[in-house]
Write a structure and sequence with these properties.
The complex is a heterodimer of chains A (360) and B (247). Chain A has 360 residues and is mainly β. Chain A has one domain. Chain A has a 17-stranded mixed β-sheet that branches. With 247 residues, chain B is of the alpha/beta class. Chain B has a six-stranded mixed β-sheet, with helices on both faces. Chain B has a four-stranded antiparallel β-sheet with strand order 2-1-4-5. In chain B, strands 7-8 form a two-stranded antiparallel ribbon. The chains are: A mainly beta (360), B alpha/beta (247). The interface between A and B is medium-sized, with 23 and 30 residues.
Chain lengths: 360, 247
């Protein structure tokens, strides 16, 4: 459709993006996936939405408070702009709750674009899980507005076997509101997880993090900007990247503290693990601070598995591959620990384990 | 049980073991003493199969099997336990998870069925009780935030759970206060003093040998065993120093 307008690696924000994989996925012909969409929902009570190739499937959905509608969201994001037409919205009045919402995106090939919107009024609470499976280019935009005291917990897993998943999250977090988003990319697709989160209310909390697991010649990346515009806000960006074979995992995380956003507490932890010398992890931590009374802890490291720990495990009888799997799982565990719901966290851990079994 | 003949080994191109021979039979406890840099820890690592510790000559058999041909995990399944001088901290993996994985991997190699979570926990708690280790520490990440003494106790709990045939304990006494030393000594006696088991204690000092009486004491110097004797040799070393004996 609009592939000519896509960003290119010449633009700094897109230097690690695998646009070739995106174009290939967009042009791929639909094939039967052999996946039963029902198997992609977790065993949790709550509203369920199924999108097959970007088209809402009412017969296999139970929307509850969610609505399906068509619109063109306002955004300047180059991929987010493409996500227009049929999508879903969740709007909760004050003190309402909705959990656990599940949205499943199953692709069979070609491109699909779905916009989404979540608006939570004061003290409303929602939790959701999104799952991307199948193949093709799945392009999604989510716009979130959290009023005072509202809380949203969002967990997203990318387990497409091939293709490309691009996700753009844009959020405004009001006073004392909280947004926690955790991503796990543990499939065979390429990906771009892109976030623009703005803390606009006093004492708000924003977290966006997760784990990217790449193998073979896969390229995945996360690029997140958290902007603090109000005082006493906290944010946390905790990302783990694991790269095997000749793959590339890239993390770019930026914290911006606007003038006057005093007593901001930002934390940024980017860590990469190389499972092969031919793999690549790119890390780009950035801080831009225009206030003088802030705390921004940041760390960025890339390394290999600790050989001393490997020998310790092996010397107790754990075979080499299992030892690698245990240590790698421990490495990504921090990133998934933020998922509050046990069923969801365990499902994500199982996806990570399945990836490890294949990659090691 | 363990038969080492003329073992040579190098670390990063430097020869450390220069023709070491040692025979350890079932039911025996051997102490290997020696000055710093003699090759004591290298011997432990070569027998354990650590990368970069490369055997260059000689043979080692454990119950008739060629030990040097095996991967480290296969050596463990064959009954070898290496107690570390500096046990490694592993964030993100609990003791219980690690040891259950280790024990069940060993059992698989030996053709035995895996222990369930409940069966394993019962075994682990019993061993922790015997070593005076709090049950909470079983749930904590492996050695993370443990004191020196707690790490060594944890090594003994691991040994109790895994039930090896041959334990090679590398300076298990270092960094221990007197209570911990006694607990570790008792642990070694209880777990390993049996007609079908054997121990090699690698140590710098006599003090652990007050709790674990060795049947044989060997002096390792410059990559070879230069003298062997009974328990009295340890006292002689303590009295006269390595210089006189190893010369």
């Amino acid at each position: 459709m609009t592939l000519l307008q896509l960003p290119t690696p010449k633009q700094e924000e897109w230097r690690w993006a695998d646009m070739a994989a995106l174009r290939t996925a967009a042009g791929s012909a639909p094939q039967p996936t052999g996946i039963d969409p029902a198997s992609l929902f977790l065993d949790l009570e709550g509203p369920r939405l199924l999108f097959v190739d970007g088209v809402f499937d009412p017969a296999r959905s139970t929307p509850g408070p969610l609505q399906i509608t068509r619109w063109t969201p306002e955004t300047t994001h180059p991929l987010g702009q493409l996500a227009q037409g049929e999508g879903w919205t969740l709007s909760l009045a004050a003190q309402q709750a909705a959990s656990c919402i599940q949205v499943v995106h199953l692709g069979s090939g070609g491109e699909s674009h779905v916009p989404a919107q979540i608006v939570l009024a004061e003290d409303a609470v929602a939790s959701m899980v999104e799952t991307f499976a199948g193949t093709g280019w799945a392009n999604r935009l989510l716009q979130v507005k959290l009023a005072r005291g509202a809380r949203l917990m969002r967990s997203v897993r990318l387990i497409q076997s091939a293709g490309f998943v691009s996700i753009r999250d844009e959020a405004e977090i009001g006073e004392a509101a909280s947004l926690v988003s955790v991503f796990l990319a543990a499939g065979g697709m390429a990906s771009r997880i892109d976030g623009g989160i703005t803390v606009i209310g006093k004492g708000a909390f924003a977290e966006m993090g997760g784990a990217l697991l790449t193998r073979e010649t896969q390229k995945q990346e996360a690029a997140v900007v958290v902007r603090h515009e109000a005082i006493e806000g906290s944010s946390r960006q905790l990302w783990r990247a694991v790269a095997a074979d000749r793959s590339t995992a890239s993390l770019a995380a930026r914290v911006e503290v606007a003038r006057g956003a005093q007593q901001t507490d930002g934390e940024q932890s980017l860590r990469g693990l190389l499972l092969a010398r031919t793999a690549t992890v790119n890390l780009k931590p950035e801080l831009e601070i225009f206030a003088d009374d802030v705390k921004c802890a940041h760390g960025a490291t890339v390394g290999e598995l600790d050989q001393r720990a490997m020998f310790y495990l092996q010397s107790r009888g754990v075979p080499e591959n299992r030892a690698k799997a245990l240590l790698t799982r421990a490495f990504v565990a921090d990133a998934l620990a933020r998922i509050g719901e046990d069923t969801v966290r365990e499902a994500f851990a199982a996806d990570a384990d399945a990836w490890l079994d294949t990659a090691l | 049980m363990l038969n080492i003949e003329n073992l040579r080994a190098e670390v990063e191109g430097k020869e450390i073991l220069k023709g070491l021979s040692l025979q350890v039979n079932a039911g025996e406890i051997h102490a290997i003493m020696g000055p710093n840099g003699a090759g004591k820890s290298t011997l432990g690592y070569v027998l354990g199969g650590r990368g970069n510790y490369t055997p260059t000559g000689g043979t080692v058999t454990l119950n008739g099997e060629d030990l040097l041909e095996m991967e480290p995990d296969q050596r463990a399944a064959a009954g070898l336990f290496l107690g570390f001088q500096y046990p490694v901290e592993i964030p993100g993996i609990s003791n219980v998870q690690f040891l259950r994985e280790a024990l069940n991997s060993q059992r698989r190699v030996r053709g035995e069925g895996p222990l369930s979570g409940a069966e394993f926990l019962k075994l682990a708690r019993a061993q922790a009780d015997l070593l005076g280790m709090h049950h909470d520490m079983l749930k904590r990440p492996v050695n993370v935030g443990f004191s020196g003494g707690e790490k060594k106790r944890n090594e003994m709990v691991q040994m109790g759970i895994l039930g090896p045939k041959l334990a090679i304990l590398d300076e298990t006494d270092s960094g221990l206060d007197i209570d911990a030393l006694k607990a570790v000594g008792d642990g070694i006696n209880r777990i390993m003093r049996a007609p079908d088991k054997a121990v090699i204690l690698i140590t710098h000092y006599q003090r652990l040998l007050d709790y674990v009486k060795p049947d044989f004491v060997h002096v390792l110097a410059d990559g070879r065993i230069v003298r062997s004797g009974g328990a009295e040799l340890a006292h002689e070393l303590e009295r006269e120093g390595y210089g006189a004996i190893a010369a």
